[in-house]
Specification:
Helix content is 26%, strand content 22%. The protein is α+β, with helices and mostly antiparallel strands.
């Protein structure tokens, strides 16, 4: 899993609940560090780790390579993490194209009258 914000950690928790091994890679030094206060982010990180999620914070990936039937995610030092599947959940820019097409005002949500 690339990205340790809300969606990335939710996907990781679901994968663990289904019995999958999972490693989450986050570019910034702390999972959830950009979206929550440090004390809360650290508590949630510990909870995920307690449930078997491996979190690698402060690791910025810059390329992916196919290796046999696996994927190797590599950082700038060519350190690699090999996985059978890679899921990315990065960025927080809202997708507003549908709202714009139906002329729904922003930032207010649609209330059935777009």
């Amino acid at each position: 899993m690339v990205g340790a914000r809300l969606i990335g950690l939710e996907v990781a928790a679901t994968a663990r609940a289904l019995g999958c091994g999972i490693t989450v890679v986050e570019a910034v030094p702390e999972a959830l560090g950009r979206v929550l206060p440090p004390m809360i982010a650290q508590a949630i990180t510990r909870l995920h780790q307690h449930h078997g999620v491996d979190i690698l914070a402060g690791l910025q990936l810059n390329r992916f390579e196919q290796v046999g039937g696996m994927v190797a995610a590599m950082d700038q030092n060519s350190t690699s993490i090999v996985a059978d599947t890679v899921v990315t959940a990065v960025g927080m820019t809202p997708a507003t194209s549908l709202a714009e097409r139906v002329r729904c005002p922003r930032p207010s949500p649609c209330h059935g009258s777009c």
